[in-house]
Amino acid sequence: MAILIDKISEQLAKTGYEMRTKKSREWLKKKVRDLSKVNQRSVLRDQSRKTNKFLPGRMYFYMYDPKTKDELPYYDTFPLVFPIEMYNDGFLGLNLHYIRPNQRLALLDKLYDTTNNDKFDDTTKLRINYGILSGASRFKEFAPCMKRYLSSHIRSNIIEIQPDEWEITALLPFDNFVNAKRTKVHKDSQEIINGI
């Protein structure tokens, strides 16, 4: 994971495009489309990003086996999540995989307004909770992303993504939906967003 993101970051830096701009995002989208096969297992073996805890407002990857999977129409076994509310047995989080890449970037733009600073380093985090998200129509893309995760159903290392890599990571094709294709999930999510 580190090698992949570092490589993309270095290539982006050589273009001269600044992060979080229209030109850099167009370049990133094309780069992600050009990726052949991404190995999720290699992401989970990245010891430099491994952590043993979730912090609200930070971004994480992990393997997940939902407790209620038999009742769900589909689910993502490799979530890309921002935890927003912590509980004794897990957390409530935003899994960006449930929306299309362009919607992920749109949501990230809005979420960037809630960061505690503009450094995009290891001190940066989102300052959000369910009340903030549900109370503001500008965050409408969040609705299909909101999921409850149980710590006891995490089946891998927890990999933390640094804030300066959130955009790149949000565009990577790492989702792993069970019982539905990505296109079906994104279509259903669009209907939820349109209904808000």
Characterise the protein shown here.
It is a single chain. The chain has one domain (2-194). It contains 7 helices and 8 strands, in the order αααβββββααββαβα. It has helices spanning 2-15, 22-34, 40-44, 101-112, 130-135, 166-171, 182-194, and strands at residues 50-51, 59-61, 75-76, 80-87, 90-95, 146-150, 158-161, 177-178. Strand 4 (80-87) and strand 5 form a beta hairpin. The model has no long low-confidence stretch (mean pLDDT 90).
Task: Describe how the helices and strands are arranged.
Blueprint: H1 2-15, H2 22-34, H3 40-44, E1 50-51, E2 59-61, E3 75-76, E4 80-87, E5 90-95, H4 101-112, H5 130-135, E6 146-150, E7 158-161, H6 166-171, E8 177-178, H7 182-194
Briefly characterize the structure:
This protein is α+β, with helices and mostly antiparallel strands and 196 residues long. The protein is built from 7 helices and 8 strands, in the order H-H-H-E-E-E-E-E-H-H-E-E-H-E-H. The longest helix is centred in the first third of the chain and has 14 residues, at 2-15.
